[in-house]
Amino acid sequence: MWNIVKEKDYIIYKSEICSLKIYCQDEYCNIFINYKGHNILMPMGMWGFEDEVQERGIEYKIGGEKGEFKTFFYIIKENDLKLFSDLIYFFLSEHNMDGVLNDSFKIEL
Questions:
Q1: Residue 14, Cβ density class (10 Å: 0-12 exposed, 13-18 middle, ≥19 buried)
Q2: Which residue in 9, 44, 66, 100 has the most C-beta neighbors within 10 A?
Q3: Ordered strands of the 11-14 beta sheet
Q4: Cβ-contact 70, 106 below 8 angstroms
Q5: Positive or negative, the Cα torsion across 23, 87, 48, 55?
Q6: pLDDT tier for residue 109 given thresholds of 50, 70 and 90
Q7: Across the strands, what pairs with 20?
Q8: Bridge partners of residue 62, in order along the sequence
Q9: In DSSP terms, which residues pair with 24 in a beta bridge?
């Protein structure tokens, strides 16, 4: 499912659906989502991703610059990283998010 590449100060999780750029420090991880060149954290929330996360008892926060949707990222505990990443993968596998892509969420690859 994931091809994991460890870089100097971050980890990349790559799949055929999306990639995640992950920074871990002090027991927490920041997870940036790249879906076809877009950060779709906000649209995922509107489609019910947070409900799936909460059902599994994973605590999370959203970080980033207020009003700048393309900078948003999830903050989770490092011990939840595997499950949380897999939830993202399966959520995107089950939901075609192409219809919610717009330039407000476009990020540099």
A1: middle
A2: 44
A3: 3-6, 11-14, 19-25, 28-34, 73-77, 60-63
A4: yes
A5: negative
A6: very low
A7: 13, 33
A8: 74
A9: 29
Segments of 1-97 assigned E as strands: 3-6, 11-14, 19-25, 28-34, 60-63, 73-77
Q: What is the largest CA-CA distance in the chain?
A: 37
In terms of C-beta density within 10 A (0-12 exposed, 13-18 middle, 19 or more buried), how is residue 71 classed? middle
* Residue pointed to by tokens 């407000």: 104
The pLDDT tens digits for 18-70 are 999 999 999 999 999 998 888 888 888 888 899 889 999 999 999 988 766 67
User: Which pLDDT value is given to residue 44?
Assistant: 87
* pLDDT at res. 108: 58
CA distance 51 to 73: 17
pLDDT of residue 45: 81
Paired sense of beta strands 73-77 and 28-34, if any: antiparallel
Q: Can you give the pLDDT at residue 20?
A: 96
